[in-house]
Amino acid sequence: xxxxxxxxxxxxxxxxxxxxxxxxxxxxxxxxxxxxxxxxxxxxxxxxxxxxxxxxxxxxxxxxxxxxxxxxxxxxxxxxxxxxxxxxxxxxxxxxxxxxxxxxxxxxxxxxxxxxxxxxxxxxxxxxxxxxxxxxxxxxxxxxxxxxxxxxxxxxxxxxxxxxxxxxxxxxxxxxxxxxxxxxxxxxxxxxxxxxxxxxxxxxxxxxxxxxxxxxxxxxxxxxxxxxxxxxxxxxxxxxxxxxxxxxxxxxxxxxxxxxxxxxxxxxxxxxxxxxxxxxxxxxxxxxxxxxxxxxxxxxxxxxxxxxxxxxxxxxxxxxxxxxxxxxxxxxxxxxxxxxxxxxxxxxxxxxxxxxxxxxxxxxxxxxxxxxxxxxxxxxxxxxxxxxxxxxxxxxxxxxxxxxxxxxxxxxxxxxxxxxxxxxxxxxxxxxxxxxxxxxxxxxxxxxxxxxxxxxxxxxxxxxxxxxxxxxxxxxxxxxxxxxxxxxxxxxxxxx
Length: 496
Fold this sequence. Notes:
The protein is an alpha+beta fold. It folds into 3 domains: 3-137, 2-Layer Sandwich (Uridine Diphospho-n-acetylenolpyruvylglucosamine Reductase, domain 2), CATH 3.30.43; 141-252, Uridine Diphospho-n-acetylenolpyruvylglucosamine Reductase, domain 3; 255-450, 3-Layer(aba) Sandwich (Vanillyl-alcohol Oxidase, Chain A, domain 3), CATH 3.40.462.20. It is 28% helix and 24% strand. Strands 14, 15, 16, 17, 18, 19, 20 and 21 form an 8-stranded antiparallel β-sheet that branches. A 5-stranded antiparallel β-sheet has the order 7-8-12-10-11. A 4-stranded mixed β-sheet has the order 3-4-6-5. A hairpin with a 4-residue loop joins strand 7 and strand 8 (149-153).
């Protein structure tokens, strides 16, 4: 490898070799023995002890190898059915370390995965045999209240952004689970409780800093590297590692109305139609999800409406009246609540110790056939948790042209999901078959899917999902990542 170029990229971090009192004990530990890694082409390659030591010495953050403390925590993702083992994990402390890691991966042609929050359903933020860049040590959020801007480090989680911004009475769209990574959510689109009112997370993005495949740090905005800025807004991690995000913020009161109404699953035919009607005519400051859920152990299934109303308090009763007319629920948690607390309220619902299989797709309204097929095809089983749920779209999201950003699915009124989860000691096959069988019926009503849910689709299916933006994306990919180093994502193959 070209050692001069490698060291030149990391001169600031490498200065720690001259002043070792700035380095941690773990960084000073010597690497013993070579490692066998996997290339982007799937072949094996040997990384010498010297190369690994040079990488370790050039980082301010950590280099983890199998057997090191912290390695297993770094490599795992939220979907516990995914169990992959990178040959090496780099945990950058800042953009300089990201550049060093990307350069090393490129020079050795390594399979490369990038992990922020680890929510990638298909496990694309980890890999077998390659390099994983784990951004968990690279987190911060700073707010400029006068400019109404938030400046967020690349590995940050949504909860950090919400907490800092709301302290000044400011918000931006930031998902529905606080431990989601800012990067994965924003670059894929960025739905959330405020998206109908303020647009997707990517619609509120003002600029980014990106380490591209050549190891260079580039600033991208409407005026700087505008093609790259267009591409990252919906093109996911195809173009590099985003090390900094700048978001537009919006004034909003701290207290909103949020919570859930829980009804018996037996009322699903009536309630699914009610959800279709109420959500389709809702004002932009009402976000309304629905869940049909059957639980393990034969427990009674439920139908849940989950909402966030962020509009004028005096109009809340009128906005929520259609839901109140549905009758007395089994449980009613709707109340005035701190917005940040509401954002954290679903943190424990994501599975951490279960296998999980999910399919998703966008719909443009509910047909009577879809409502009927949803209810008829949904199955309860004592050995798994099954659910169908809907995320509310529309509003401000649909006011942006499909070609304005790389995310093309602006017409979608809802995102529809079918999922099953099961204990890890069970065979996954019957649960996967159930979801696939169900989706073969209801999935025909969809038009594209949320790219952050990519899990095993063919390259052709993934690329078709970018619809009319694909060719432009392929050109941007060819400019910034011509060898497809960043391929573990909803991948766009560079134009020849």
